[in-house]
């Protein structure tokens, strides 16, 4: 490995600005936003004894087998 004396070191003179990083166009609080592509099915389940309607959502860019059940908020 290279060896050199400390006297030949020079101070680092970089920029004070932090590196710029573009976030995806669909982001919220630095988290990607999932965009629904299709409603595949619907169901009603009981939550603490109360009926709750849900829809099966296929997300944009994801296969149908990765769809998820989401509460339907009226």
Characterise the protein shown here.
This is Chromo domain-containing protein. The chain has 74 residues and is mainly beta. The chain has a domain at 35-74. It has no helices and five strands. The chain has strands at 27-28, 31-32, 36-47, 50-59, 68-71. The protein has a three-stranded antiparallel beta sheet, with no helix packed on it. A hairpin with an 8-residue loop joins β4 and β5. The chain starts with 26 loop residues before the first strand and ends with a strand.
Task: List strands and helices in order, with pairings.
Layout lengths: L26 E2 L2 E2 L3 E12 L2 E10 L8 E4 L3
Antiparallel strand pairs: 1-2, 3-4, 4-5
Structural class: mainly beta
Sheet-strand content, in percent, reads 35-45%
Task: Report the biggest beta sheet as strand number plus sense, adding barrel if it closes.
Answer: 3 strands, antiparallel
Order of helices and strands: EEEEE
Mean pLDDT: 83
Rg, rounded, reads 26 Å
Estimate the helix proportion, in percent: under 10%
Cα end-to-end separation: 67 Å
Task: State the total count of DSSP E strands.
Answer: 5
Give the low-pLDDT segments.
Answer: none
Number of helices: 0
* Widest sheet: strand ordering: 3-4-5
Shape: rod-shaped
Give a summary of the structure in a few sentences.
This protein is mostly beta strands.
Which descriptors would you attach to this protein?
mainly beta; 74 residues; 3-stranded antiparallel beta sheet; two-stranded antiparallel ribbon
